[in-house]
Specification:
- The complex is a heterodimer.
- Chain A is an alpha/beta fold.
- Chain A is built from 35 helices and 25 strands.
- In chain A, the strands form 7 sheets. Chain A has a 6-stranded mixed sheet.
- Chain A is globular, with a radius of gyration of 28 Å.
- About 2% of the residues of chain A have low confidence.
- Chain B has 2 domains: 239 residues, TIM Barrel; 55 residues, 2-Layer Sandwich (Alpha-Beta Plaits), CATH 3.30.70.20.
- In chain B, the strands form 2 sheets. Chain B has an 8-stranded mixed sheet with strand order 5-1-2-6-7-8-9-10.
- In chain B, helix 6 links the parallel strand 7 and strand 8.
- In chain B, helix 3 packs across helix 5.
- The chains are: A alpha/beta, B alpha/beta.
- At the A-B interface, helix 29, helix 32, helix 33 and strand 25 of A face strand 1, helix 4 and helix 12 of B.
């Protein structure tokens, strides 16, 4: 192809300009330097049409531009054609991301170098970029939202909501005898929490460099692959020593007026960076994150300098992706992930979905943990070297934890001395005593227990990515401390005061959890919109012995959840229909109505039944809790990585229609399963088989990548700290990344079930059963987005029974798909030797994957979101009960990584609060009676959501449930907002 | 007035609506029978008046594919006709409904057998149990099919679900007491206009037997423990007048009734008239086109409170 064209020349000139500035101006040149030497790499830019080919090389402070890209180029940017290349110069950085998502621009090679390049572009263009983003933000708020006609008279007079009172007492409720629902308490009674809420809603989060800086400094000094003497590091020991150093040297901060000590960063709300996984993905945005529309991050110029010169360069080749790329020669399974349209593997960012053994920490303290490990070291004469090293590493991390707590204690004492307010002085003195005692020693009081857990939690996030670590069954684990405190009190007044204190304390804990956010590069705002760290708490259910577990703390947690109404911690509730009471379930429904979105409700019996195939011991199984969104993990004993992949099942359907070709990726990547235009697929089953073959292909690849990433984690980031608090590791002498946990598995999230089922039903009915249209016509309609097929589109929508309409055949179809997915995943084994589980929930990927998928036989148009989780399509039925019945008919045993079933209900103005709660209760109870597994509500009308789109400033705290987690509606991207508005709405 | 009667085994029903929270206690399935002895000008379900199957056309749902025009042998479909269907010419063969891909053309009303209806209602028994709900017979006027509903209620009685009937009150009381009444847990009885002349003018017939039935039932229900709830549809300028409401209140108080339900006016029925080709005989005033404002509803409530009626 002739390279003497304008595009190629222009590109060359632009790159040359950049090179020129770097070569000749010190104020730019200095950005080529890092604490590890010069930043050296080559970056190629070309078009698929071969019109453009340029390569810019950075070598030892000198920049050169050539007209050909060498074989060993570090990273390539490949543009679909000249137009896309041109648009890159006109778009703000976040829109460039859209090009990547839409596969108009693909990246090949080390993505960190692409980030550096973007950073360099930003150096020159940041003024223009910021102006573009500001303009975009202004435009965004003027977007037109369809006005809807006024509905029936609502809120004639501001209705006074009469909160419910408990009708009976659960056996586990010993002390809240006045009213377990705690209706007498309101947020106004807790000014401290009000203050924290204010910060939460108004403070912009900021990128914090403390963690990555301290760690990188340590690694630079002590080595990463090899230590300072040149010997290869045992990764566990290296991580442990670095962790200890970090814990000893990070700033011990106590938030003003807090009752719980310690923070995850130095900022009020910090974005914590993990450069060994995805931290470098923000590099290109460092100058512009404060200006982006969704989830802007504040950043100081000091932080920018530190990250660019002293942190990120160290990690360019030391992260999970690059490890797999170089050790396994850029495998296909990785390339598929980096095209975004078929699956997303979470291990590139985190291996966090697990629940630690907090009862143990509270019972024996860090000291006790160390003692146990030492004992094992002493007793096991057969221990191999790795076991000795692993156990030694675990000990080091707990020493680090103790050191941090001691620093907090000192800090509290120093602040107490300077504090003039008597009340606060007393609180700080108490806090100092608490931190001197826990988590080193066993906890004795609720204050100690909550501080112990939080301080340990900080440690967890110093070692591991803050993406879905879950707090587990806090009501169960804290009850003994609450009870111990209560027993010491004599008078009624004392007890009442204490209950209020307990509520406030738990409230402080919740607010502590909001002090950090996961790093989401702007592209992530489209994939995981609105997500926070998703620290799941699970209430209720049964005890390990099988008794009713609902207790005082359950209701205190529910009260705090209701009062604060925040998105994180992500509260889940286990409802066991055999043991838990109506009183408890009613309260869950009331909290849902008042918060409009939480907690999600799990049918305890069904979830446990779904895990039967793994033969877990009963006491372990009964101790399950939700991780991240909804998935079950056996608390304290299990590394389930329950969100290892977000899997787009719909891609397989597209590939089956196009004989292995994926339309968006423009790639013939799948197996050849049959060409519709040549008359393949004589029967429906033929097509179904093709679909399954494509699914299999994608599943094989995703599991392959997951395995390789699992290996990467075991080498780059073993986690001795959390290994210290998960059963099995001490005996086996292995880190959890090396299968040290008692139970090991990997959990998947399979997305698009309803859309697939509906599409398959349409094909079966209209093409094969009734022969109203041919496969070729269907394919053509889908390919052209139904533009010329309005009759077919109408038929598809109105004449075919969909999943959720009460039709048995559609349910059978859904079950057929579920079974295949479950069985095929079952055949795979992960890096730790664990099995895969099949989940049917979607985070917010149903929107992301939807925007990357073309039209479907179900009538869904190109780019529209899929339904969340496995929720039926909005137009499947006017009757919510059809939805509920159909979802409850899905085979539990094949959905062993839980599901997300969204229900939007709108309380009617004329209904009393009591009646509205009773209605929600009826749905939830009946659903559980019918065997449904999980259900989550959005109790808000489309009208409110539309108003919130138009006037976000009035709705800062409007919370919605996406598919497994909560988010603030106004922080979501527009596609997600519209999806929520369009979800079927059932008037309560 | 239409006088079609139904056999024991089937009845003309135009909708069976599940998950209703507004037609009785708990979660309910509401069965809408087609055909009504009254002809109220404000009828919220104008498609329920006729005791025959009708053809409905929803303009907004039409995708203009003209499949219906090709199949219509009576040439009754014309885009120039604001109602689209010439109902004088249409033979109600329903072929166009079969052909219509979007469902813009649809049949209103089909015959259900008792077994079919029982199966449909019993689907939701788990929800009835949890919520204390059940089945509501409505329409139109369900008592036009007394034999059918009696057999139906007998069939579902073993499921022990709550049974409720919504009625305009114009029926043979003895027949009602002998057949349907024993199977009912609740009766929602509409009282629209107290003055007989007004009633004749706006509803098409006298209200004497309606009021008589109510008076007798109130005694009977009190004795048997069956819930009898009088309901008034509030229609601006017609039923929602001070005079009418006071008269009804007085009537109820004399019978010792202490509870009433006021149904706020909703304007959505105008569009329904278009769909079935009926010209709304009501005055097209502003008040009729809007949802009734809350203040007005409050005022009506106050009138009843004056009579000790909630």
């Amino acid at each position: 192809m002739d390279k003497n064209n304008i595009a190629n020349i222009a590109t060359h000139l632009l790159l040359q300009t950049m090179a020129f500035h770097f070569n000749w101006f010190p104020r730019f040149r200095r950005y080529l330097r890092s604490d590890d030497g010069w930043i050296n790499f080559s970056l190629g830019m070309r078009t698929e049409t071969d019109t453009v080919e340029q390569c810019i090389t950075f070598e030892n402070g000198h920049v050169e531009v050539k007209g050909n890209i060498p074989e060993d180029v570090d990273v390539e940017m490949i543009f679909q054609d000249n137009a896309v290349l041109k648009s890159m110069t006109e778009l703000p950085p976040n829109e460039v991301l859209n090009l990547i998502l839409k596969n108009k621009l693909t990246l090949r090679g080390n993505l960190a170098y692409a980030q550096v390049f973007n950073f360099f572009i930003s150096l020159f263009m940041k003024g223009k970029q910021i102006k573009m983003m500001r303009r975009q933000a202004a435009r965004g708020t003027q977007e037109d939202c369809t006005a809807i006609p006024a509905g029936p008279a609502e809120k004639a007079s501001p209705k006074k909501i009469q909160p419910l009172k408990a009708e009976k007492f659960d056996p586990g409720v010993r002390y809240l005898k006045d009213d377990p629902y705690l209706a007498a308490y309101r947020l106004e009674d807790f000014p401290r929490l009000n203050k924290f809420l204010d910060i939460h809603f108004n403070q912009m989060p900021a990128i914090c460099h403390e963690r990555p800086m301290l760690l990188t400094q340590w690694y630079r000094k002590n080595g990463f692959e090899t230590d300072s003497s040149g010997n290869p590091w045992v990764a566990e020991l290296r991580q442990a020593q670095a962790f200890k150093y970090l814990m000893e040297n990070r700033k011990p901060i106590i938030r003003k007026d807090d009752l719980i000590a310690g923070t995850t960063s130095t900022k009020e709300i910090g974005v914590v960076l993990y450069p060994d996984t995805h931290g470098t993905m923000i590099w290109g945005e460092l100058f512009t994150t404060p200006y982006r529309q969704l989830f802007p991050y504040d950043i100081t110029s000091e932080t920018i300098e530190i990250l660019h010169h002293s942190v990120f360069p160290f990690w360019i080749n030391r992260n999970m992706r690059e490890w797999v790329r170089s050790n396994y020669d850029a495998p296909l399974c990785q390339s598929l992930d980096e095209r975004f349209a078929v699956y997303f593997l979470w291990k590139t960012a985190a291996l966090s979905h697990t629940i630690l053994d907090y009862p143990k920490l509270l019972k024996v303290g860090a000291k006790g943990i160390i003692r146990e490990i030492r004992k094992e070291l002493k007793n096991d004469k057969q221990a191999d070297q790795l076991k000795k090293d692993t156990l030694q590493a675990m000990i080091l991390t707990y020493e680090g934890l103790i050191a941090y707590a001691k620093n907090l204690s000192k800090q509290a004492k120093a602040e107490a001395e300077l504090e003039s307010d008597r009340g606060r002085k007393a609180e700080l003195t108490k806090l100092s005593e608490i931190c001197a005692r826990v988590p080193e020693h066993p906890s004795r009081t609720l204050d100690e227990a909550l501080n112990a857990i939080w301080i340990h939690w900080v440690g967890v996030h110093m070692e591991n990515t803050n993406a879905g670590f879950s707090l587990g069954r806090m009501d169960q684990w804290l009850q003994p401390y609450f009870a111990a405190d209560m027993r010491k009190l004599k008078t009624r007044a004392e007890k009442k005061r204490y209950i209020k204190h307990a509520i406030e304390l738990v409230g402080c804990f919740y607010m502590r959890c909001t002090d950090h956010l996961p790093l989401i590069p702007d592209i992530g705002n489209y994939l995981f919109g609105g997500s926070s760290s998703d620290q799941a708490i699970t209430l209720g259910g049964v005890t390990p012995d099988g008794d009713d577990a609902v207790n005082d703390m359950t209701y205190i947690f529910l009260k705090v959840t209701e009062m604060l109404s925040i998105r994180d911690p992500n509260v889940n509730a286990r409802y066991n229909k055999e043991k838990n009471s109506e009183t408890y379930l009613k309260r869950l429904c009331e909290v849902n109505k008042n918060t409009t979105a939480t907690p999600s409700i799990h049918n305890d019996v069904a979830v446990m039944a779904s895990l039967e195939e793994f033969n877990y011991p009963d006491e372990h199984l009964r101790d399950w809790a939700a991780t991240g969104c909804v998935e079950p993990t056996l608390s304290g004993k299990h590394l389930g990585h329950t969100n290892c992949m977000m899997f787009n099942m719909v891609a397989a359907l597209e590939m089956a229609m196009y004989n292995g070709h994926h339309p968006l990726m423009r790639w013939d990547v799948g197996p050849r399963t049959g060409d519709i235009d040549n008359g393949s697929f004589k029967t429906f089953d033929d097509f179904f088989d093709a679909f399954c073959t494509q699914l299999e292909f994608l599943m094989d690849n995703s599991c392959e990548y997951n395995k390789l990433l699992g290996e990467a984690h075991s080498i780059i980031r073993p986690t001795p700290f959390i290994s210290g608090l998960i059963s099995g590791t001490t005996d086996k002498g292995r880190d959890v990344t090396k299968a040290g946990a008692l139970h090991n598995s990997s959990g998947t999230a399979c997305i698009g079930l309803a859309d697939i089922t509906d599409s398959l039903m349409v094909i079966k009915k209209l093409v094969y059963d009734e022969k109203k249209v041919s496969m070729a016509e269907m394919k053509r309609a889908v390919k052209t987005n139904f533009e010329h097929d309005s009759a077919l589109s109408a038929m598809v929508r109105n004449k075919v029974p969909l999943f959720g309409s009460g039709n048995a055949e559609a349910v059978e179809m859904a079950n057929r798909v579920i079974k295949f997915v479950h069985d095929r995943f079952k055949d795979h084994v992960n890096f730790r030797g664990g099995r895969y589980t099949a989940g049917f929930w979607s985070m917010s990927n149903h929107v992301a994957f939807g925007t990357l998928t073309g039209a479907l036989p179900s009538g869904r148009r190109a780019g529209k979101p899929f339904t969340p989780g496995l929720t039926p399509e909005a137009h499947a039925s006017k009757n919510l009960l059809d939805n509920i019945r159909d979802v409850s008919r899905l085979e539990q045993s094949n959905m062993n990584n839980n599901i997300a079933f969204n229900v939007k209900v709108v309380p009617s103005a004329k209904e009393s609060h009591k009646k509205a709660v009773e209605n929600i209760y009826s749905y939830a109870k009946t659903y559980c009676d019918l065997g449904g597994m999980q259900m989550q509500f959005n109790v808000v009308s489309s009208q409110t959501l539309r108003d919130a789109m138009a006037h976000p400033e009035n709705y800062k705290n409007l919370m919605v449930r996406i598919s497994g987690y909560n988010a603030y509606f106004t922080t979501l991207n527009r596609d997600m907002q519209l999806e929520l508005i369009e979800r079927a709405e059932y008037g309560l | 007035m239409h006088t079609d009667t139904n056999t024991h085994d089937t009845a003309l029903i135009f909708e069976v609506k599940g998950n209703s929270l507004d037609d009785g206690p708990g979660i309910r399935t509401v069965v809408f029978f087609k055909g009504c002895p009254l002809d109220c000008v404000w009828c919220h379900n104008p498609e329920s008046k006729s005791g025959r199957t009708e053809l409905s056309f929803e303009k907004d749902a039409c995708i203009m594919c003209d499949a219906c025009q090709h199949i219509c042998t009576a040439h009754a479909l014309d885009r120039n006709n604001p109602y689209y269907i010439d109902r004088e010419t249409c033979t109600l063969c329903m072929k166009c409904v079969e052909e219509c891909p979007s469902g813009a053309l649809s049949a209103v009303g089909r015959y259900w057998t008792i077994d079919e209806l029982v199966a449909e209602v019993e689907k939701d028994i788990p929800f009835f149990r949890t919520s204390g709900g059940g089945v509501t017979l409505s329409g139109g006027e369900p008592t036009r099919s007394m034999n059918f509903i009696t057999s139906f209620l007998k069939e579902v009685s073993s499921s022990k679900i709550h049974t409720l009937i919504e009625t305009c009150g114009l029926f043979d009381l003895q027949h009602f007491l002998d057949s349907v009444y024993p199977w009912l847990n609740a009766i929602y009885f509409d009282i629209k206009l107290f003055d007989e002349d007004e009633h004749r003018h706006y509803c098409g017939t006298s209200n004497r037997s309606i009021l008589e039935n109510f008076a007798q039932l109130s005694e009977r229900c009190r004795k048997d423990g069956v819930e009898l709830l009088p309901r008034i549809p509030l229609v601006p300028g017609i039923t929602a007048t001070e005079d009418n409401l006071r008269s009804i209140a007085g009537f109820l108080k004399r019978l010792g009734m202490h509870e009433i339900e006021l149904l706020a006016y909703n304007p959505l029925w105008f569009d329904k008239c278009w769909k079935i080709g009926e010209k709304s005989s009501c005055e097209n005033t502003m008040a009729m086109r809007q949802w009734m404002p809350a203040g007005q509803i409050e005022q009506c409530k106050v009138i009843f409170e004056g009579f000790d009626i909630r």
